[in-house]
Amino acid sequence: MSESFPRLSARTRRFTLGVPRGFTISPDGGRVVFLRTKSGTDPVTCLWELDTETHVERLVVDPRTLHADEEDLPPEERARRERSREAAGGVVAYATDAAVRQACFALSGGLYVVELASGQTRALSTPGRVIDPRLSPDGRHVAYVCDGALRVQALDGGHDRALAQPESETVTYGLAEFIAAEEMDRMRGYWWAPSSDALLVERADDAPVHLWHIADPANPDRPPVAQRYPAAGTPNALTELFVLGLDGSRVPVPYDEEYLVTATWDSHALSVVTLTRDQRTMRLFSVDPATGATSLVREDTDPAWVDIVGGVPAHLDDGSLVWVAGSEGGHRLIVGDRAVTPPTLQVRAVLDVDHDSVLFSASGDPTEIHLWTWDGHSLLPVSTRSGVFSGRMSGGVGVLTEQSLDDEGVSTTVVRRDGMAVPIPSFAERPGLDLRVSLGRSGRRELATAVVLPTWYEPGSGKLPVLMDPYGGPHAQRVLNRRGAFLESQWFAEQGFAVIVADGRGTPGRGTEWERAVLGDLATPALEDQIDALHGVAEQYPDDLDLTRVAIRGWSFGGYLAALAVLRRPDLFHAAVAGAPVTDWRLYDTCYTERYLGNPEAQPEVYEKSSLFADAAKLERPLLLIHGLADDNVVAAHTLRLSSALLAAGRQHSVLPLSGVTHMTPQEVVAENLLLLQVDFLKKSLGGATPPGSGPAV
């Protein structure tokens, strides 16, 4: 018997192993450096280089040859990987000099530098374990974080020194604090000057942040892990910026806002972006690195919140600012002082600026993400087929990644200046599932919806129980034109369900008004839209859906939505699987929660409206709660407190605690059996249509 889908999905980290990623293009466009594992089941990531002229691909660094593939990671690196949802090991991140001649990386806490042309790799001596090494643009120094200190080592002589030492155990230099990494997609805490003689460095002090403890009840001999967690309405870490010179100078860069969003340092400016605590005002400053004096370049405001968009600020060769801002109901690309995209094209991110051209991703249809360029005069589409695209651009050479419903996996192509396409092969495993997915619109709000039916099902041959499979929360999507988005949904469908995936209000790609519909209420719009999608699909498939047997499953916000559905609408939802659910938004972090619900001290009624606890006595349907006890994002207290409230109300439910498991559930056995246990629970709760010749779930 061939390997089951749950097992293969677990072994392949949901089919991400073997996929090329992390691309860097040399300034002349002649080489592309990237990351990839050697196979679709190999968890050890290697560093590779492609010669764009000869099309020859070369393995540059294999961690196994360095005898360091067994990960012995510093706690800060484990936390960084959890924040970035990194599921693999080996060389999972690297940084190059400006010429892309050298690369540096951390491996099992050690510091390594490799000459890309020769592949010669050397380990550098450090006083402790290393986090986030980055080469200076001129390639003469490497900076890194060690025990909370920002250190720099000269590559020619090995002289290593700390430019900034933590003043207490709660202070770090050069690392992104929890909120920046988890909610603002900023994974770094320092930036080299283009001249290579100074760095802009974040100092973060967690002392004001409330101290929580994450215990492992399955191992009572182990002490609880202390964690500073900034829950809604409580203090954040204190962040400061300094320009640290290699000559020992230290210049403070003052700002008043609560959040440091990002920074960039290019030949035109040292730029800093900040955000107020209420997230309604974002400011872009230009900084004089010699004095630390700041000048306001741009201020964006919004009565709800200002969105953080990746890849900005940036500058064209002539110094024109590249920015993204909300305008006329859309997220628009701004070059200089004017919007160059229409409000109907929702800009997702700026991916690269190559001299006078901007490469960015954007959506017209929210189920698709396409690549566009602005060349200083006009907008040009880069991707023309249906699907989800991303890419990089440098030296006139592009790297394009493509996913669609028509093709398996991720396709990666290097497009040379002469237009020739050079593929970078993927080694990912094939899922072995045929998809039967229909994308469309449903309900009175025309929600983006995917309907997933069993491949063996004959329309009209008998009504199928329904499984709603949403995420449903703001700033994230499930309904996209790519096969990878529906593999688990298709597997559930094969077990005898009609699966519905719907993106409601708050999800991106449909404009600012659509996204801001969840302001002040994370429960009502999300649940209403799932109900709207259910009824809309039932009208489209009147002979195929059994609305007397409807279940809902989800993870994280999707878990919250699943529990919410059976608690508030048991007339429509007959069973739920809630994985790592947020149950009380006072227990979730400041930046995410306050963006939508404000401060709980000022608006307690808003938090009560979105909490699940007051609904505990309403439970009358089967509910399975799943939670990793080592989860430091949505802590297990969410599930345990809801379970206590359900018990106090005398309501039967099931709890599946996962010892040692975080929010990612990366462990193979856990990931495999979670799928099997969920489908078993759903079948027992609802009953399922029986596939022809079916046996156990595969």
From TrEMBL:
Signal peptide: none annotated. InterPro entries: AB_hydrolase_fold, Peptidase_S9_cat, Peptidase_S9B_N, Serine_Prot_S9B/DPPIV. Residues 106-373 form the Dipeptidylpeptidase IV N-terminal domain. Residues 66-86 are annotated as: Disordered. Gene3D superfamilies: alpha/beta hydrolase, Dipeptidylpeptidase IV, N-terminal domain. Residues 488-687 form the Peptidase S9 prolyl oligopeptidase catalytic domain. It comes from the Bacteria. Residues 75-86 have a biased composition (Basic and acidic residues). GO terms for molecular function: dipeptidyl-peptidase activity; serine-type peptidase activity. GO terms for biological process: proteolysis. PANTHER family: DIPEPTIDYL PEPTIDASE 9, PROTEASE FAMILY S9B,C DIPEPTIDYL-PEPTIDASE IV-RELATED. This is S9 family peptidase.
